[in-house]
Amino acid sequence: MIILLLLVRIVVFALGAYLVFRACLSALRTFVLPRSAPDRFNRTTFIVVRQFFEWRSKRLQTYLERDRVMELYAPATILRWRKGHKLIETHEWIPPSNT
Question: What is the 3-state secondary structure (H, E, C) of the chain?
Fold first, then answer.
């Protein structure tokens, strides 16, 4: 059981390190390059949130109602993106161990 727990922690650490690396690379590609290079990390975040907003706006009838929902798309995505980075940085998503 201890070996399994150790293996899970190693895998979770490797995944977290990969996500931090991708986030740093994404920031470099977005903000440092003279022309923003396309980045899969940012694109995936925005596509996932966009699908949620599209699903929500399908049920609405008028353009005004859809516009009211979609006006929150960019701010919500940026906040979600920032919250994801904060979870990665602080390891809040890892349950505490009882050892």
Answer: CHHHHHHHHHHHHHHHHHHHHHHHHHHHHHHHCCCCCCCHHHHHHHHHHHHHHHHHHHCCCCHHHHHHHHCCHHHHHHHHHHHHHHHHHHCCCCCCCCC
pLDDT digits (tens, 9 = 90+) for 62-87: 888 888 888 888 787 777 766 655 55
Quote the crossing angle between the two packed helices 73-90 and 2-27, to the nearest 10°: 130
CB atoms within 10 A of CB 35: 4
Up-side HSE of residue 41: CA atoms within 13 Å toward CB? 19
| Distance from C-alpha of 96 to C-alpha of 99, rounded to nearest angstrom | 9
- Rounded CA gap, 36 and 91, in Å? 29
